[in-house]
């Protein structure tokens, strides 16, 4: 059985996943195909996100496509210019990153009720972060102390992480299959980044399903029997 993020022959499964997302599918397909520039997609991850802003609903889609020696990132969102939603503009951004330029692939997990964890316990959420430029993203909030009456300025606290793109996939919102797909894509990208393979289809396969690479180096000369050397006869390789 092919991995769920394997793009298939001529990228048909990539096209199917974009159509399934249903967010301006033909536009997204054309943009992705244009960014591939003739390369064959190997593995992909398509993520549709929905955000609620008071009375407005905002959606945007991100497509990560591993194609031969590069990672393509396509992001599409829309913006409404009137209250009736008739005047809409789609904003598209694409980026192509060489696999060798990727600095890190970080996958964070969330488990519900960890005290009851078992090997088959489902993951409730994963966060996939990919960094290639070394950009440092800092998230700061005002620091507070334990005294509710304190009026002093305690500065700021926060987190800093090197990341260029972050995707959060929830089992509740996106489904368990989407969570497993994100994990699979992360493993595929890590393998391609650490040890690129020449066969694109092999990159998307699980480790145990790969065809072993041929051994390199000089072939050892067959060892002859001691008795054959002694008598001068060539009796073939030793068994």
From TrEMBL:
| Listed Pfam families | DUF5998
InterPro entries in the record, alphabetically?
DUF5998
Where is the region Disordered? 205-239
Please give the superkingdom of this protein's source: Bacteria
Q: Where is the composition biased (Low complexity)?
A: 209-224
Q: Which organism is it from?
A: Kocuria flava
Name recorded for this polypeptide = Cell wall biosynthesis glycosyltransferase
């Amino acid at each position: 059985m092919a991995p769920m993020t394997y793009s298939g022959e001529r990228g048909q499964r990539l096209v199917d996943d974009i159509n399934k997302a249903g967010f301006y599918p033909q536009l997204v397909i054309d943009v992705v195909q244009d960014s591939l520039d003739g390369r064959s997609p190997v593995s992909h991850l398509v993520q549709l996100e929905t955000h609620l802003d008071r009375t407005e609903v905002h959606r945007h889609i991100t497509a990560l496509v591993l194609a031969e020696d590069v990672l393509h990132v396509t992001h599409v969102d829309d913006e409404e210019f009137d209250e009736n939603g008739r005047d809409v503009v789609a904003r598209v951004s694409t980026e192509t990153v060489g696999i060798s330029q990727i600095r890190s692939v970080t996958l964070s997990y969330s488990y519900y009720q960890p005290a009851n964890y078992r090997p088959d316990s489902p993951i409730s959420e994963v966060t996939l972060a990919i960094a290639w430029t070394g950009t440092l993203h800092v998230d700061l909030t005002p620091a507070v102390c334990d005294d509710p009456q304190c009026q002093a300025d305690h500065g700021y606290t926060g987190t800093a992480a090197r990341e260029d793109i972050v995707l959060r996939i929830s089992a509740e919102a996106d489904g368990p299959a989407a969570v497993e797909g994100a994990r699979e894509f992360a493993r595929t990208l890590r393998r391609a980044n650490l040890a690129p393979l020449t066969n694109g289809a092999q990159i998307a396969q699980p480790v145990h399903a790969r065809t072993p690479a041929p051994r390199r180096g000089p072939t050892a000369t067959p060892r002859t029997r001691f008795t054959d050397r002694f008598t001068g006869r060539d009796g073939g390789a030793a068994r």
